């Protein structure tokens, strides 16, 4: 079998999905169904694509933490008053875990606030 033709730059000929340098199949488009991306790269890609909802939750997490600290309340105190697990509150404040609306409402009430959800036209 004759070797595949290569372009001047040393790349494989068009239609060949193997890299000219290492012989392995290329991963294709990042995030594609067959992509082979390291977990670190995958986490980075997910972190850089932040939706409006994620941004709103991040802002809310900052506001909750700031309000809790202003009131001089510990996570344990807020957890007890809101009946939400302390670990859930910590993870929400650290932005490592989203939280359901009912729990957010309970935490807001424990901090002496109302949580209001509004709908606006685009």
List the helices and strands and how they pair.
Elements lengths: L38 H10 L3 H19 L4 H8 L3 H8 L7 H10 L12
What do these coordinates show?
It is built from five helices and no strands. It is an all-alpha fold. It has helices at residues 39-48, 52-70, 75-82, 86-93, 101-110. The chain is globular.
In short:
This protein has 122 residues and is mainly α. It is 45% helix and 0% strand. The protein contains five helices and no strands.
What is the first-to-last residue Cα distance?
Answer: 60 Å
Total strand segments? 0
H/E topology pattern? HHHHH
Described by its quaternary structure, the protein is single chain
| Structure class | mainly alpha
Residue share in helices?
40-55%
Number of helices: 5
What's the overall geometry? Answer: globular
Tell me about the largest β-sheet: none
Mean pLDDT equals: 75
Which terms would index this structure?
single chain, 5 helices, mainly alpha, 122 residues
